[in-house]
Amino acid sequence: MLFRTFAGFRGLLCARACGILARILQTKQALSLQQGRRQDDHPSMSFRTFAVDIKLDFTVNMRQCSLLSALFFASLCAHAANPLPRAPEQLARLIEEKGARAVIDQAWSSGFWDRVILPGVESGTVAWLRVASLLRMEVDAGSAETLSWALVEALPKNPYRVLPVMMQDKHNGWTADQACFINPDVAEPKGGLNNYLQRLDRALYLPKSQELKALRAGCLSGIARTREAVQESLSTRDGETQQHVPADSPEAVRRWTKR
Q: How far is CA 58 from the centre of its chain?
């Protein structure tokens, strides 16, 4: 976000520079029309008038650019002077007060997003999942992708708490099946895909409520699809068709750990 903010600021300065140039050209055109006859008799007077007008216009616009710069760096200092709280309970209250978008912007620009929020969400605790739930409806682009992956990492630690948060995504509209599916050719969780699937499978204990049973069935379906995708990927790796290997066989496990 910091780089995107600087990029936006550079774009604003470029726009102001273009505005200065346009006004200079307009001034030159106006002088040419108004003093067309006088330019033949007194060319030096026309040039001096044009130069003075350019100098005054440039001075005014430089002052405006300086003011924009001061406001920009003042906003950065305001963020630094008001750091975000590290405790998830306090952070959740701040999100409710200031709005998720404001907190996301500040967290992204200060590095707080990567240092604190993502590791916190990966922990899978109830407090951090509440923070993720509050942020999830306002994330976009890079923040959406990284928050989603942090929830993927949290899934084996607290599946029945994490799944509802993942399924509230307004962009993807994930189901439990989709939330528990991982494309082996796109990403791999920490510790390896095989280890991840085993931990997630063990964490999906048989619940009592029908709602949680539906979540469990959907997630198990996603796990099964992931194993099928692994098997398919192994059979076509390096562009050569390999001998069929059952997804749960020791040979498949050995290949997974080498990915």
A: 38
Q: With contact defined as beta carbons under 8 Å apart, do 259 and 193 qualify?
A: yes
Q: What is the DSSP string of 118-186?
A: HHHHHTT-HHHHHHHHHHHTT--HHHHHHHHHHHHHHTTTSHHHHHHHHTT-TTT---HHHHT---TTT
Per-residue pLDDT tens over the stretch 132-171: 999 998 998 889 999 999 999 999 999 999 999 999 865 5
Tens-place pLDDT, residues 29-54 = 555 555 554 444 554 544 455 444 54
Best CA proximity match to 1, nearest among 118, 105, 144, 147: 105
| pTM for this prediction | 0.64
Q: DSSP string spanning 78-119? A: HHHHSPPPSSHHHHHHHHHHH-HHHHHHHHHHHTHIIIIIHH
Rounded Cα distance, 131 and 147, in Å: 11
Contact 199, 162 (CB under 8 A): no
Instruction: Enter the tokens of residue 43.
Output: 């060319």
